[in-house]
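Format notes (please read before filing issues)

Several people have asked whether sequences and C-alpha cells are stored in separate files. They are not. Every record keeps both together, in the order shown below: the sequence lines, then the C-alpha cell lines. Line labels are part of the format and must not be stripped during preprocessing.
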Amino acid sequence: MKCKIVILSAFMLIIPPVHAQQTKLITTSEKLLYHNIQLSSDTKTIVPWYSPDEGKSYDYVINATWNFWNTMRMDKNGLPYYMNHQVWRGEFNDRRGVGGDQFAMALSSLNLLYGYLGDEAIKEEMKFIADYYLTHSLSPSEALWPNIPYPYNTFLYSGIYDGDMIIGKDYTQPDKAGSFGLELVKLYKITTGLRSDVCDRRYLNAAVQIANTLAQHTIEGDNENSPLPFKVNAITGEIGLLKDLWNTGIGDQKSCYTSNWSGTMELFLSFIEMKEGNTQEYKQAFDKW
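Then the structure lines:
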C-alpha cells in the first residue's frame, strides 16, 4: 500500500492538475490580420489563435509555412515562383524579380527548418536552390570580380541572374555574395558525409571562390568607404551609383559603403577555422574591418 502511495505521489508531481493546463480565453472584436485577437484572462497577453499551447501553435505555423513554400506554384519559365520574384501575389505574377539576399536568406531559414523537422525534402530543396543559383548567376571567371553571384534577374523570366535591380546588368552586390557563400558552407556541412567524392565539395569549392574574390578586393575602410563596396560592376570593377530616386537634391552617389558584412566576415572565419582556401588572405581581409 505504501509503495502505491509513493508511485501515485510521484505521478501527481509529473502531471499538473487539469485546471493548471487550461487557459481561459477572452476573444476580442479586434482582428490581427485574419483572426480575432484572443487574450489570456490571467495575464491579458495575446494567446496564439491556433492553440493556447504555444508549442502546438509554433509547430503548426512552421509546418504551414513550409507547406506554402514547398507547394508554391510554378512560374511561366518552369521554375518555382520564388526563383523569379521577391513578392508573392496570389492572383497574378509580381513584376519585380528576386530580392538581393533572397536565396541566402532562404537557405538560412531552410537550414534551421531542417534542424527542427529533420525532413530530407527540406535538404533537397536547399540543394535545388543552391545548384540552380550557382549554375545561373556567377560572374565570368575572367571578370575583375570573378565567380561571385549576381543578385537579380534583369530579364524576369530568363532564369538567369545577371545584374542589379536598380542599376542593371553586370552589377553585383559583394555583401550578398558573402552571405550566400556562408550558406554554401553550411549546406556543405549538412550534406557531407553521405559520400566523399568531388560532388560533395561543390558547395565548399564555390564558397572558396567567392571568399577569394571578396578577400582580394577588401581594403581598409573609412567614413566614406566600407572595406568592400555596396555595388560594383563585376566585369569592369566600376563602383555602382546609388540612384536619387526620391529627388532629394543630392543627386546620384557612388555606392561605396554598406554595413551588411557579418555574413562575409563569418565566411572568412569559417574557412580559417576549417583550414580551407587562402586562409592567410582571409585573415588579412577580416582584420580590415
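For reference, the curators noted about this record: Strands lie at 25-32, 35-40, 46-47, 163-164, 168-169, 171-172, 232-233, 241-242, 253-254. The longest strand covers residues 25-32.
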